[in-house]
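> call design_seq(struct)
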C-alpha cells in the first residue's frame, strides 16, 4: 500500500462510497465524525478499500476519549480496512493524555493484520520552517509505514516550505504524505504528489470537507493525474 499515490475520499458516512468510486482509490472513514462507526463497518460492502481514522480531539478531531483505540482495534480486523491513521504525538507519548501504550499496541495489531499505519501530524495554526517540517516528516515516517504532515499555510511561502520538505523527505527515502490546509496552500494538495506525497484527501461531497482548503474529489483527481502524467513524460 502507498507504493503509489492514493487519493482518499473522506467521509463519516460509508453509504457515500459508491459516489466516490469513480474518482477515489480509497475511502478515508472518519470514525470520529460518524454515527455508529462500527455498525457502518460491519455493514460495508463497497468496492473501495478503507483507511480508518478516529481523530482525537487534541489533534483537531472529535474523538473525546481513549475508547477510540478500542474502536480502531475492532475496525482494523475488517477485511476492507487496509490502513489506519495514528497520531504521531500518541505514538511518541507526547499526547496530552499520554496514550503511547495504546497507540503502539494498535500499531502492533495493525502490523499483525497486514494493515498499513499512517503516522500523522497536524498543525491547524501555521506551517513551521522547512527544517522543522523535515524533522517531523522523518519522525512520522519512522513511526509509521507512511508519515503524514498537514499544516496550515498562511502565505505562499508556507506552501513552498512544505513542498521543499516533501521533496527532501522523499529524496532521503522516507515515505510521506503532505498537504497544506487553508487557501494559500491549497495548490499543495495537487502539487505535493509530484514531489513524492503518497496520499491526498478530498471530501466525497464538497459540502462536507474534513479540512480547510480541500478540493472537490473529482477536481483533485484531475489535477493530480494531470500533473503526474506530465511529470512522467518529462522524466521519460
Ligand atoms: O489528515 C488528514 C488530512 C486532512 O486534514 C486534510 O488536510 O485533507 C483531512 C483529514 O480527513 C485527514 O485525516
Amino acid at each position: 500500500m502507498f507504493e503509489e499515490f492514493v487519493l482518499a475520499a473522506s467521509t463519516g458516512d460509508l453509504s457515500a462510497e459508491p459516489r466516490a468510486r469513480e474518482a477515489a482509490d480509497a475511502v478515508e472513514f472518519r470514525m470520529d465524525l460518524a454515527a455508529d462507526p462500527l455498525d457502518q463497518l460491519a455493514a460495508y460492502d463497497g468496492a473501495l478499500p478503507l483507511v480508518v481514522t478516529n481523530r482525537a480531539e487534541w489533534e483537531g478531531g472529535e474523538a473525546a476519549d481513549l475508547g477510540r483505540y478500542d474502536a480502531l482495534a475492532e475496525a482494523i480486523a475488517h477485511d476492507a480496512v487496509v490502513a489506519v491513521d495514528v497520531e504521531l504525538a500518541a505514538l511518541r507519548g507526547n499526547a496530552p493524555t499520554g496514550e503511547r501504550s495504546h497507540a503502539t499496541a494498535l500499531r502492533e495489531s495493525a502490523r499483525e493484520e497486514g494493515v498499513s499505519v499512517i503516522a500523522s501530524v497536524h498543525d491547524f495554526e501555521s506551517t513551521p520552517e522547512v527544517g522543522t517540517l523535515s524533522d517531523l516528516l522523518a519522525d512520522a515516517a519512522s513511526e509509521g509505514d507512511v508519515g503524514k504532515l498537514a499544516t496550515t499555510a498562511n502565505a505562499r511561502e508556507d506552501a513552498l516550505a512544505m513542498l521543499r520538505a516533501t521533496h527532501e523527505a522523499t529524496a532521503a527515502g522516507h515515505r510521506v504524505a503532505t498537504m497544506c490546509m487553508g487557501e494559500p496552500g491549497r495548490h499543495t494538495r495537487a502539487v505535493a504528489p509530484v514531489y513524492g506525497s503518497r496520499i491526498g484527501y478530498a471530501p466525497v461531497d464538497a459540502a462536507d470537507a474534513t479540512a480547510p482548503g480541500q478540493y472537490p474529489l473529482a477536481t483533485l483527481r484531475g489535477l493530480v493525474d494531470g500533473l503526474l502524467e506530465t511529470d512522467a513524460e518529462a522524466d521519460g
